[in-house]
Specification:
The chain has 303 residues and is α/β, with parallel strands linked by helices. It folds into 2 domains: 175 residues, Rossmann fold, CATH 3.40.50.2300; 99 residues, Thrombin, subunit H (Beta Barrel). It is built from 9 helices and 13 strands. Strands 8-9-10-13-12-11 form a 6-stranded antiparallel barrel. Strands 2-1-3-4-5 form a 5-stranded parallel β-sheet, sandwiched between helices. A two-stranded antiparallel sheet has the order 6-7. A hairpin with an 8-residue loop joins strand 12 and strand 13. The longest helix has 14 residues. The protein is globular and about 55 Å long. It starts with a strand and ends with a helix.
């Protein structure tokens, strides 16, 4: 029997990425998509699906509103729902779980993490594609890319301590700890290096990739993209077309906006092989009027 997925996200880049990863990891599956909750409901009235992967922050109808509709429908009250979000703070995740989310993935994610979470939900409803299980088993061995698990929040499964990415630090805990119980000690803050720049800038940002987190000095920004300088670390650098989440802040340290995107260019910042400065451009993929408004105000203020 064919396995069917529904991918919901206002960003075309993210939808296409998730669809490709599902089709590659679970051969023979059917993947439908929608740009927001309203269009997702229209899709579900045409055909039933096995697993839904949905963004949380979308225009017209948010992921939360869409999930509330699902859980009120007899045909979809138990359908696995994986929240795909650029936010990983505890309050946000717990709220989604209480609303009925089955699991969550934090952007930016990699194919192994996406497949592992999806196969887990398929197993819960009695569907277990052989190819997908094999790939997911391999992914289970690589815990360095895990961005969160419902098991860690609820105390189930084998994940005794999983990280939830929240800006530049990781927070571990169970659902009991998040709702008033005793929480385990948080893991050590991730070191974020900051490049030294003397030229005029338009603010600062934190760039999150599946390979790590980098501080960035913003050199130019529009509603479509931003370019800046980040310092080369000791780990693996992100590559062209990798997903990115941009947490934009002011020079005073205040949070301004969070935007999803991908790397459209990356190059050495100096003409030498051992340079520690990296030039990077992030193309934004969100299609959310609220984010455009916030970015417009920020750009106007910094120019």
């Amino acid at each position: 029997m064919t396995i069917r997925f529904l991918v919901v996200d206002d960003a075309t880049f993210i939808r296409d990425l998730v669809k490709k990863q599902l089709r590659d990891g679970i051969p023979g599956s059917e993947v439908f998509d929608a740009t927001d909750g309203r269009r997702a409901i229209a899709q579900l009235k045409k055909q039933k699906v096995d697993v839904i992967l949905s963004d949380w922050e979308m225009p017209n109808m948010s992921g939360e509103e869409f999930l509330q509709w699902l859980r009120s429908e007899e045909d979809y009250c138990d359908t696995p729902f994986i929240m795909v979000t650029s936010r990983g703070d505890r309050d946000h995740v717990v709220k989604a779980i209480k609303a009925g989310a089955s699991d969550f993935i934090t952007k930016p994610f990699n194919a192994e993490e996406l497949l592992k979470k999806t196969v887990k939900q398929l197993q819960r409803i009695g569907k277990s594609p052989v190819d997908a299980v094999k790939s997911a088993s391999q992914a289970m061995g690589n815990q360095s890319h895990a961005f969160g698990s419902i098991d860690a929040l609820t105390g189930g499964g084998s994940a005794a301590h999983t990280r939830i990415e929240t800006n530049s630090r990781s927070v571990g805990g169970s659902l009991g700890a998040l709702t008033g119980g005793k929480a385990p000690e948080p893991s050590a803050p991730k070191k974020v290096v900051k490049p030294e720049v003397k030229k005029k800038t338009q603010g600062r940002a934190q760039l999150r990739f599946s390979t790590g987190t980098y501080a960035c000095v913003i050199r130019d920004m529009s509603l479509q993209a931003m370019s800046g300088l980040m310092q080369r670390g000791v780990g693996t650098l992100p590559t062209l077309f990798d997903q990115a989440v941009v947490d934009i802040g002011s020079d005073g340290g205040e949070d301004v906006a969070r935007v999803n995107g991908y790397i459209s260019s990356i190059a050495a910042g100096e003409n030498k092989v051992d340079t520690t400065i990296v030039k990077i451009t992030i193309k934004f993929v969100d299609n959310d009027p609220d984010k455009f408004e916030v970015l417009s105000r920020y750009i106007a203020k910094t120019r």
